Amino acid sequence: MHIAIIDDQTATRQATTQLLSQLTTPTQPLQVTAYPTAEAFLFADQPADLLLLDIKLGSGMDGMTLAKQIREHDADTAIAFVSNYDEFVFDGYDVNAID
């Protein structure tokens, strides 16, 4: 399984990557890749099974816009928003995010 973390906060990316890396096993290996921006994820062109998205990503595209763009071409990738912004909670349903 490939998990992509898209978050503009370096400490959050590192902590999440470290936590998820501890969950890998020989029978269920995990590949975890972290990106500081939505554009970096798109440019990498590396499909993921699960996206852990921050909603506010600093400058550039935000996480919700990225999720909508992904959904236009891919209905199968699981998307989960990792954010402190509760005002976006219902927007996640528009892109079939994991609840």
Automatic annotation (TrEMBL):
Positions of modified residues (4-aspartylphosphate): D54
Family annotation (PROSITE patterns): RESPONSE_REGULATORY
CDD domains found in the cross-reference section: REC
Residue ranges of domain Response regulatory in the record: 2-99
Metal-binding as UniProt keyword: no
InterPro entries noted in UniProt: CheY-like_superfamily, Sig_transdc_resp-reg_receiver
GO biological process: phosphorelay signal transduction system
UniProt keyword Phosphoprotein, yes or no: yes
SUPFAM superfamilies, sorted: CheY-like
Protein name: Response regulator of the LytR/AlgR family protein
The organism's taxonomic lineage, starting at the top: Bacteria, Bacillati, Bacillota, Bacilli, Lactobacillales
